[in-house]
Design a protein that fits this description.
Shape: elongated
Distance between the termini: 13 Å
Radius of gyration: 22 Å
Order of helices and strands: HHHHHHHHHH
Structural class: mainly alpha
Largest sheet: none
Strand content: under 5%
Length: 178
Amino acid sequence: IPTATMFLLKIGKSVGSNLALSVGVLFAIIFFIVILFMIKKSREAIVSVLVRLPVVSTVMDQLDTARFARTLSTLLKSGVPIMVALDVSSDVLRQPKLRRQAEEFSKGVSRGQSLADILKKNKTAFPITVTQTIRAGEKTGSLEIVLEELASFYEMEVDYSLKRATSLLEPLLMLIIG
């Protein structure tokens, strides 16, 4: 029997003979992970590690862009002042670095800068296409509509990225199991 198969059989046998201990360890691990995500500093540390992974970073960037655009669009459509809308929209971002950058957006708008100019200065905040689209929305006076379309676009991109990632994972898992 190959070494990997032998190892798997031994693990299965030990889990079967110590079922109560195995279930207890499993629940302890799940509890520990939940506690880690409840603590803000550890959650931010986990997110900052995940952001460095290639596929995960793309998905998280797209997800944060979609959240920001959707929230800002909804708030502006509801008549919320742009300063308040920008503050609330920055709170929905999951990446700590991006959230800190977004908190500066309302300060820039209060100084009379356009949102597109602020985004252009913070090149790492959002993709350049987002900046250019927001600039067009500001010039035409249809920022809410443009933001809603941006959100829809990036939500579709998240779906496509996740589908691509899972389609890449399936053969990899089959290879590992084989």
